[in-house]
Amino acid sequence: MRHRRKLAAGNWKMNGTADDLGEVTALAEAHPDPGCQIVICPPATLLSRMAEAVEGGPVEVGGQDCHPAASGAHTGDVSAAMLADAGAAWVILGHSERRADHGETNDTVRDKCRAAWDAGLIAIVCVGETLEQREAQNTLDIISGQLAGSVPDGATGHNLVVAYEPVWAIGTGKIPTMDQIGEVHDAIRARLERRFGEGVGRSVRLLYGGSVKPGNAAEIFAVSNVDGALVGGASLKAADFGGIVAALGGD
Ligand code: 13P
User: Fold this and answer.
1) What pTM, to 2 d.p., does this model score?
2) CA separation (Å) from 191 to 19, 143, 146, 250?
3) How far apart are CA 243 and CA 24, in angstroms?
4) pLDDT in tens, 146-202
5) 129-153 pLDDT, tens per residue?
6) Ligand 1 atom closest to Cα of 96?
7) Residues 31, 67, 95, 185: which is the catalytic one?
8) Could you tell me the residue ranges of all domains in the chain?
9) CATH 3.20.20.70 holds for 7-249
């Protein structure tokens, strides 16, 4: 099996101003040689300053969304090329908060993913079921549909990461059982292998997201096909995110 480098990705959501850049430099100083890749996705307003602050160190930066078009009359939006210009190498797409707050469909996410790839960004495409969908035992169908619809043709282990984020686990302190996480991650891996071939399917990294903390990270990272985490609240402070980085990288 092709080696998949572990990945700790932080999603700052709508949090962070210049005062918070010190958290990222502290993280970089505390983990100069982490055993995993580290990405922080701050709000767009902080991207270029964060990219400058972490340059040459172990932390990479990413955006939280991009517009599907390369440029044009789209007031308030940011294109993938603009994220890249600001120093991003990554972009989160199809987060459940975007799907819920901005009505993003699988088609929208797929178009954004193409735009991200055109700009040379690595896309972290998010999928996840609501509590209702889980209780109705529709989880795997929902995830399969989101995956099929949100990921364009042309995925590789170099341009795509998939994040499984159960909507009901985000910011709630609730997490699925390890068996439930494993079941979904195994299913995502199987579907990627079927669609893109074994080589590509096995090389795409799969992250778990939703209430990951230093205290539960090691247990989650031991689950089959979990290659890292997409972390919200616990990515805002160097000490918390550092605990997750350490659990993942063994440093
Ligand atoms: P929390 O880690 O705050 O639950 O958020 C998860 C998330 O939505 C990351 O994208």
Assistant:
1) 0.98
2) 42, 10, 11, 30
3) 14
4) 999 999 999 999 999 999 999 999 999 999 999 999 999 999 999 999 999 999 999
5) 999 999 999 999 999 999 999 999 9
6) 8
7) 95
8) 7-249
9) yes
